[in-house]
């Protein structure tokens, strides 16, 4: 039985070069990467084109407990005083209820007790954030729209209308 080199395949390839990767694509990729690195260095050194999220100092802070009972009523309670801040029936408080579901899921994955308080913060810029004190997550609520952020900002109000 003749060897593979006698079948004609290798003998036909003598003197030929294999197909190479197109140089234009390699050069284009190198130029694109160089531009990206240069743009990042330029932005970091000059501050042009860089978006920074500046919130300032906290204006109002309230630690709250958000619980759901068997009747699917979501209750927001001040963690320090135990006073009920607000209660949302089954068809009310959609964003507060949705946020609770998201945080409940994160706590379940992290295996953290559900009894730890959340921290609601109003910042100097007017931004409102909700932090989970148990897992360390913070969500800036303006990302979900002004009305949704206002739903949580209302929880910072005391009964007299003053900020804590």
TrEMBL record:
InterPro entries: PuhC. This is Putative photosynthetic complex assembly protein.
């Amino acid at each position: 039985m003749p060897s593979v080199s006698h079948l004609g395949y290798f003998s036909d390839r003598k003197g030929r070069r294999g197909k190479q990767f197109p140089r234009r694509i390699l050069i284009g990729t190198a130029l694109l990467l160089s531009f990206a690195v240069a743009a990042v260095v330029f932005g970091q050194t000059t501050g042009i084109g860089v978006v920074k999220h500046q919130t300032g100092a906290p204006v109002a802070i309230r630690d709250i407990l958000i619980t759901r009972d068997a009747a699917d009523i979501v209750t927001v309670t001040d963690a320090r005083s135990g006073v009920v801040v607000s209660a949302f029936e089954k068809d009310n408080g959609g964003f507060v209820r949705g946020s609770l579901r998201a945080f409940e899921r994160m706590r379940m994955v992290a295996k953290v007790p559900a009894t730890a308080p959340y921290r609601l913060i109003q910042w100097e810029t007017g931004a409102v954030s909700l932090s989970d004190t148990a897992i360390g997550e913070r969500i800036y609520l303006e990302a979900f729209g002004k009305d949704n952020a206002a739903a949580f900002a209302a929880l910072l109000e005391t009964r007299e209308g003053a900020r804590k």
